[in-house]
Structures are given as structure tokens and as C-alpha cells.
């Protein structure tokens, strides 16, 4: 059973048959392929190309095929090129060629596969968005539990300023919220019907594409048939969005890996998400996080691969486009697993509050010293310079900055007085950052409130 064999007298080369066969990849689209065929059959019936009786017989046959797929009883043959071939062959076998042969009237696999992929992608986006919401919720609840924990904030991997542990955690929650929003916008833009475009020139049988779009849940129809049969920008964008999610998870994983080391010891990962060593009994390795970080590489590779496939193609459909789905499925599968995994890690990790606090150092309040001087009327650049001189003097005489005497400070600048002692307080330091997005308690509570509203607004009813 071939969909295209009428003008051929020779059998296809056996190696080409293997290369040409995409069934191992695209059989995953069996249900979407059937959905598209049912909607198209309805459109043909409404255009007068099928009787209502024929339409019902086709739907019966397609439903039977879907049942075979779902039960795992469908028989796949070596000559089945792809999922479209399997479904059409089985339809011929179940209802006979006279009626089954009408289903493909005016339709090309060039458009059919794009419909299948978009229907699949719509569900994939919804699933990834659900997992992103769950991850944001897990991070947000962990931040709420640990809102009073103070820790060093880092820039350039050097201790910078005191911040709330929750403030650090929430920085990643907002990354994932933005990922959700990007999928939302992409999903709306992607949701345009390709069906009715034929191989490239369009459909000559006066089908109602707008009605067909509504039946399949699309928001509109593609405006140019030559464009849509070769368009894989939606795959590029899907792979990119998954890559961006992977990058965000990888960065979070890197932080967590560092913070779980004995050198930091801010957190302890649950045994559920670590593994041991075959040689060193004491080891608790963060394999879960390392794998999340490692998977980012192949995901990025799949994004590059589809771009390289597309970059030299002439217009409309080319067989190169058969290479579009394996990467799309791979990045989805990997993101699905990693989002679940990192959510579990966040929910089960233990935070060592005392260790976080004891890792702070008063030299991290040097910026607060500059702010102290600013509040006394000193221009910031001058205040910054004075504070830097104090740090240098502290390091030179090997006395902690908060232990320098008032006389020591006044030798550097006369603008210091006894009120300088008030800045040597970590809680006071974080509490001065009251702006929206800051690390004060009220600011962090507002961030938690915003994210909680986001999560509650996207929980399925």
C-alpha cells in the first residue's frame, strides 16, 4: 500500500525505503492525524464531496483505528512509510477502498503533517505550562517557608551583599513565570490552520477553511498555501522556548549544586534525588541536578539542528522537513522530565538557616557604609571611594571592618560619627531595600503574593 505509486514501475531501493521511513518517529502523532482526518472528512461532506452516510462510515473506521493504536493492537507493516500511510491503509482495510479512497480528496501529506504537529504541539505547550506553574508554586512555597533566612548574595561568584534566601529562590520563579508567558504568546500565534493548502497551490473543492479551523480549535487560517506547507518556524520557536526553559533550569541546578557542597552547605538535598559512589561510601552526589544541567546541551543542539535543516531550503515542501519531528519530541520529553524532577528537588531540600547566616561577613556591608555617607550628604562616588579606603585599611591591618574604631574611620574621613555602628546589622541591611523587587521582607512578601496569584490563576478548575 503506497500513497504515491501509480506512476512507478520499479520498487524503491531498500536503503532509501529505510531512510524514507519515518514511522518510528511520527507514529506518536496517530491521534492527531485521526483528528485532522475526521475534521477534513466533515469539511468534504459539507462541500458535497461526501454523503453523510459516507462521512459516518469514515468516522467509524477512523475511530476503530484510534482504538487499535491506543490498545497497541494495530499491525504495522514494513512498507508503511509513516503514520499517515498506516492510518489510510487501515481505513482501506476496515471500510473498503470505495469510501476510504475519498478521504484524501484535495489533501496532501505536506499540509496533513503540519496539522498533526500543531495539534500535538498545542497539547505539549499546555502540558509544559502546567509543569511550569507547578514549579513556580513549589519555589514560591519554599520561599515563603524560608522568608526570614538571610544569606550572602553573590556577583562574579564573590560574596556581595546580604539578601534573603527567599529573594534568591524567587529570582528563578520569575524566570519560569516568564517562560510560561512566552509559551502563552507563542501558542496563540502558532494556532493557525494549515489544512486546505494542498501540496502547495491550495484546495480546489471549495471547502470552508474557517469552519474547518473552528472544528479543530484553531484561531484562524493560514493566509498563503505555499508558505504554510514549508513553514517550520513554529518548531524552531518551540525548540527555542524549551531551550530557554532548559537554560533556566540549568542555572538553578548549578546554584543548588554549589549550595549543597560542604564548602557552602546552605542546603541538603534529599536522598531521593542524590546517588552514591561505587568507591567512596560517604558521597552524596547531586546527580539529578547534574543531569538537568547536562541535558541542556542536547536540547540546545536540537534547536540548532532544525535551524540548520531549514537554512538552505528552497520554497514549499522538501523532504528535508521530515527531520523536523525527532528533535521536537526529544526536547519536549526532556523538558517534561526535568521540570518534574527539579520541582521535587525544591520541595524536598532542607535549608540550613544557621549556616546561611554564619556565612555572612561584615565586609559585605561596605556598600551600606557608602549609603550611610550618602545619607549624610556625600555624593555617592565620593562615598564609594571612602568606603573602599576603609575596606583597604581593614585588610591591611587585618582587623574586621566592623571592629575598626571610630578614630580609625575618622582618620579616613571626618564624615563618620558614632552612628556608623548602626550599619553593622544584617537584618537592617536587607530591610532598607523596600523598593518593588527588593530583598526587604515586605518586598519579598509582595513577590510571593504576585506569584501565588499567578499559580492560583492557572490551576485547572
From TrEMBL:
Q: Which Gene3D superfamilies match?
A: Fumarase/aspartase (C-terminal domain) (1.10.40.30), Fumarase/aspartase (Central domain) (1.20.200.10), Fumarase/aspartase (N-terminal domain) (1.10.275.10)
Which SUPFAM superfamilies does the annotation name? L-aspartase-like
Q: Which residues form the Argininosuccinate lyase C-terminal domain?
A: 364-431
Name-wise, this protein is: AGAP008141-PA
Q: Tell me its family.
A: Belongs to the lyase 1 family. Argininosuccinate lyase subfamily.
Q: Which residues form the Fumarate lyase N-terminal domain?
A: 6-301
The GO molecular function terms of this record are: argininosuccinate lyase activity
- What species does this protein belong to? Anopheles gambiae
Spell out where the chain crosses the membrane: none
| Gene Ontology annotations of biological process type | L-arginine biosynthetic process via ornithine
Q: Name one Pfam family in it.
A: ASL_C2
Q: Which InterPro entries did the record assign?
A: Arg_succ_lyase_C (IPR029419), Argininosuccinate_lyase (IPR009049), Fumarase/histidase_N (IPR024083), Fumarate_lyase_CS (IPR020557), Fumarate_lyase_fam (IPR000362), Fumarate_lyase_N (IPR022761), L-Aspartase-like (IPR008948)
